[in-house]
Amino acid sequence: MRAWRRGILWIVLVALLSGCGSSEEDSPPPDERIGGVAQPESAAETTPTAEVPPFDAVVVIEVSARLRSDRRLVVEGTTNLPDDTRLQVLVEREVSGVRWQERTTVLAGAFSAGPFGPGSGLPDGDYRITVNMPPAQVQPPRVRARLGEQGENLRGPLVEASRHGLGQVVSATQRFLVGTRTRHTTDQVEVMELD
Predict the structure, then answer these.
(1) Is residue 157 within 8 Å of 142, Cβ to Cβ?
(2) Which residues, at least 6 apart from 186, have a Cβ–Cβ distance to it below 8 Å?
(3) How far apart are the first and last CA of the chain?
């Protein structure tokens, strides 16, 4: 009788365990997200579906800055580069070479970065503001489609070859003099005073 009970017990256990197994019905459909991350099936899904026109204008970047009441600098500007273009804004004190930098993105033809400078504020002196557009390879796919894979659609006096052989990049520089005392210079600078 014990053998008969053991046999039934084994049959029940096998039936229960087989019900816990996976079947084709239990597997997720192939287009379902796994772990909250989209799993594209092919590279075609990651490229933009709509055809975007190439960038065909001369690159324009206009830079302005304002000194806040805490003597820190906010850099703003306008550009005709496509929306979502990634830019890097660099502020450097010319006497000491101290720099501050921040990444920003073009939105509706404008960008903004900052405030730049130490908590105690910027000391009087000459400052160089540089706005750089990194190579097209690090730009979003839609921007890269307009600018070209190597930035070949970029043109104008602000366009230059990348130092690392990554195609063409954009760089615009503006000098500012912060303080109430003007200095003698032959360069074209804008004098900013604290209000």
Answers:
(1) no
(2) none
(3) 101
Long-range (24+ apart) CB contacts under 8 A made by 158-166 are 158/59, 158/60, 158/61, 159/59, 162/135, 164/135, 166/135, 166/136, 166/137
128/172 Cα distance (integer angstroms): 10
Q: How many Å apart are CA 129 and CA 116, to the nearest integer?
A: 10
151-168 as b/e, with b when 16 or more CB fall inside 10 Å?
bebbeeebbeeeeeeebb
Contact by Cβ (8 Å): 86, 140: yes
Query: Tens-of-pLDDT digits for all 195 residues of the chain?
Result: 566 667 676 676 666 656 555 445 555 555 544 455 555 544 444 454 467 788 888 999 999 988 888 888 899 999 999 999 999 999 998 888 888 999 999 999 999 998 998 888 888 888 899 999 999 889 999 999 999 888 888 888 998 888 877 888 999 998 888 876 555 555 666 666 665
Q: Is the pTM of this model over 0.90?
A: no
Which candidate, 54, 56, 52, 53, places its Cα nearest to that of 156? 56
